[in-house]
Fold:
Amino acid sequence: MSSSDHFWTGTAVVTGAGSGLGAAMADRFAEAGMSIVALDIDGERAEQQAQAVRDRGGRAIAMRVDVADPAALEQAVAAVREEFGGCNVLCANVGVQQFGAIDKLTENDWRWVLDVNVLGVVHTVRAFLPLLRKSEGVRRVVVTASSSVLVPGVRMAAYIASKYAVMGYGETLRMELAPEDIGVSVFFPAGMRSRHLESSRLARPAELGPSVLAREDIDVMMASRKVDTAEHVATPEHATRNLLAELAANERFIVSHGAYRDELVARCDDLIAAVDRAQRA
Ligand SMILES: NC(=O)c1ccc[n+]([C@@H]2O[C@H](COP(=O)([O-])OP(=O)(O)OC[C@H]3O[C@@H](n4cnc5c(N)ncnc54)[C@H](O)[C@@H]3O)[C@@H](O)[C@H]2O)c1
Structure:
């Protein structure tokens, strides 16, 4: 438990809670005393996560929800209202990965990644916002972007474009909800040992054709981002160790781990230099 735990009351809803980062987030909020709603396209894994919370004495329910399906999210909202009466923390966390060079990514790859990663976040927030607005106590939304937004790499253009959109959406949402005292943070996890590639493959709708995963794409991507040290890859538990404290402080951006500082500074310097050149032009 952290010193900010007394702060967390009510219900935390987490999408993608059946695995990895979402499961770790659910565990953190459960430890802090919140009721948990575990949503995932893999209903069995979501239920296992909810059961694990209940086994430790917490309160939790699970539902199978595809975040690309607004009607399924509306059903989840009704279930949460019925079971717990409110929503205080919303983690729009689902994201799928499809590696591939720019000329190899198909139209279906793009549509699927944008549909789940971008519209999935939009649908999730749109569905739960009325309940969040009515809930008493602390209210927070966290949207999961990626360290690849801070320091891009090759062979994942669809994924990176989608996570830039998540960041833009999250920042706009933060400004729009600030007058209502609902905090919004953009979360940038770095590499994690999770089931991301496997669960992405399983979650891809069959009608889009199979997800192609080439080891070479991963190697070339990692080399382009210099993500070859232990500092860049962590467990989801480690990646969430600072999450509640950052959310309690209503930080605009939350970084989990990773050694990207120098690359990020160089990138920001380039952007500021462009602004300066424009002023002199
Ligand atoms: N793993 C990494 O290295 C990494 C790095 C940066 C950011 N992220 C981001 O972190 C988030 C969580 O990823 P993770 O590593 O925990 O992966 P994970 O595979 O362990 O968990 C993702 C969960 O999302 C579920 N899911 C997939 N499509 C869904 C859909 N349409 N509707 C509902 N649920 C769906 C999966 O079934 C799975 O349980 C994602 O947004 C991902 O893009 C991951």
Q: What stands out?
A: The chain has a mean pLDDT of 95. Residues 15-16, 18-22, 40-42, 45, 65-68, 93-96, 116, 120, 144, 146-147, 189, 191-192, 194-196, 199, 203, 236 surround nicotinamide-adenine-dinucleotide (CB under 6 Å). The domain at 5-280 is CATH 3.40.50.720 (Rossmann fold). The longest strand covers residues 35-40.
